[in-house]
Structures are given as structure tokens and as C-alpha cells.
Amino acid sequence: MTSDVTGTSTTPVVEIVEVAPRDGLQNEKKVLPTEIKAELVRRSLDAGLRRIEVTAFARPDRVPQMADAEALLAEVTSDERLTSIGLVLNRKGLDRAVAAGCDEITAVVVASDGLALKNQGVDTRAQIEAWHQIAADAKQAGVKASVIIAASFGCPFDGEVSTERVLEVAKGCLDGGPDELAIADTIGVGVPAQVRAIVSGIRAIDGEIPLRAHFHNTRNTGYANALAAVESGVTVLDASTGGIGGCPFAPGATGNIGTEDLLYLLDKSGVATSTAIDAAQVAATGTWIAKELGLAQAPAMLGRAGWFPAL
Predict the structure, then answer these.
(1) Contact 143, 96 (CB under 8 A)
(2) Is 173 noted as a catalytic residue in this protein?
(3) Does domain 8-304 have CATH number 3.40.30.10?
(4) What is the bridge-based pairing of β-strands 13-18 and 272-273?
(5) C-alpha dist (Å) from residue 181 to 22, 150, 164, 229, 285
(6) Per the residue annotation, which of 102, 155, 173, 247 is the catalytic one?
(7) Could you tell me if residue 220 is left (phi over 0), alpha (psi between -120 and 50 degrees) or otherwise beta?
(8) pLDDT tens-place string over residues 169-213
(9) 11: pLDDT confidence band, cut at 50, 70 and 90?
(10) Secondary structure tally for the chain: helices H, strands E
């Protein structure tokens, strides 16, 4: 049940970024204590995950689940296995992330003005300008900086988001010199054809930038999109243990693609992961965190169905 880099140079290799501690928990109604969040990070590390989005630096009154960002990082940053990522929305968030000892930050630029205004109070152009300053300041602080283009596949307020619009936003983001560029299906509306079009379009703009993708499984297309992304040249995928999470602007959202289910898909598709990850251990963590959240069961399926064939 463990997938890692053992193939030839022609074997696709994907890095998994574990996002359960941030995007998985952020919109859950039950606010978990810091020690449970720290345990989630440790269990993820024990399973072989290394790059983990630990928290977000947001206003506590707006995102209560992330109110303990500094306290949580203080609990886990001493673990040498961890590469910690903090999500930031502005310069103040960056300052907090640097002071808390994050190894990396991810800034957010929303592809649609509707969600940008609703989520951060400024339009897309202003977010791109803010990203440029965040990127420069992060570089000066010696912290890696990625930027994620949210609502790359659709917006709950503006409707469909065209590939042309996403590529226009991508150009603006690339001007800031990110260490990595990510695209996100924030509300889970995208399909593989869109994935291929966006990735090929970005590659035409910049053939070298490392690409990352973040999918939600709201309409059961998240895993198909993940595979399409890998086949198109994306080398980093976000996933959430247990499939927990969601978006407050997407009614009925079932959450992020589950890390354990993604591992099964990649393994059976001949795609290696950059570190050895124990899918059974991830699935057990998914079952555990679902119980801590008071969920009847984790949205991810591997914890219920098991690996095939059984080992």
C-alpha cells in the first residue's frame, strides 16, 4: 500500500501536499483543540507525508478554526520531517507566517472578481498586486512562496470562469516570480478537459514553473481531474486525509479529494509519489479525524473499502 519513487525516468512522479490541517479543517463547524490538530500533523508525518499545509493566517473572527495558527506551529515545527506551509492573504499574514517559522507560504489570488471581493474585499487585479509584494517580501525573508489561483474552474458568484481569464491571471501571478504556481477548483465544478486546457495554456506561458493542483470532489470529478493534471504535467497535488473539508460558498460540497483515495488511484495508474506514503496509515488517520470532528464517517472511501487486492 506504499507508493514511492522506484520507477524509471519515464515513470510519472507526483508530490502530495497534505492540506487536511488547513483546508480540511477550516470550514468544519466543530473547532478542534490545538493538540488534536498537532496530532493530525504528526500522524500525517508518520504515514510518510512531508509537505503539509499546517494552517492559515486569517482573522480569527472570520476563520475561528485557524485562530491558533501560531500555537499550532509551535507544537510541530521542531519535527525535522516537516516542511510547513502557511496560507496567507496579505502582508500581515506573511509577517505572522514568517514569525511563526513557516518553511513556505501560499498566497491566494482568485480568478473571479465576484469571489475575490466576497472573500477578501478586493478584486483580482488588487490581489495580484498584493501577491507581487508578498512574493518579494517572502524572498527577502528566505521563505519559499507559492501562489494559488482560486476559482480557476468556476465561481459561485460569477458563474463559469474561462480558460482565457485563468491564463490572464496566471500571467500576472507569474510576474511575481513564484516558486510554484497552483490552480484550484475551489467549488468542485471542473472537468478534465478544463484541466488539460489550463495546464497546457500555462505551460505555453512558462515551460519551467513547477505546477500544483488543488481539487474538490463536489461533483465526483476531483479524482478524474487529478489524473488529468498529472497526465498534463502537473507534479504536485493537494489532498486532504479523510477527504474532509469544503467551501462555504459551495452548497453541498463534499470536501477535498481524499489523500488515501488519491494514493490508490495514483498507485494503480502507475504514478509514483516523491516519498513513500502508507495509504493504510493515512486511511486510519482519516477515520480518526472524522470521529474527532463528529462526522458519521470520513468522506474518503479507502478507509471503508480497503486496498485491492487486500494485503
Answers:
(1) no
(2) no
(3) no
(4) parallel
(5) 19, 11, 17, 13, 29
(6) 247
(7) left
(8) 999 999 999 999 999 999 999 999 999 999 999 999 999 999 999
(9) confident
(10) 12, 11
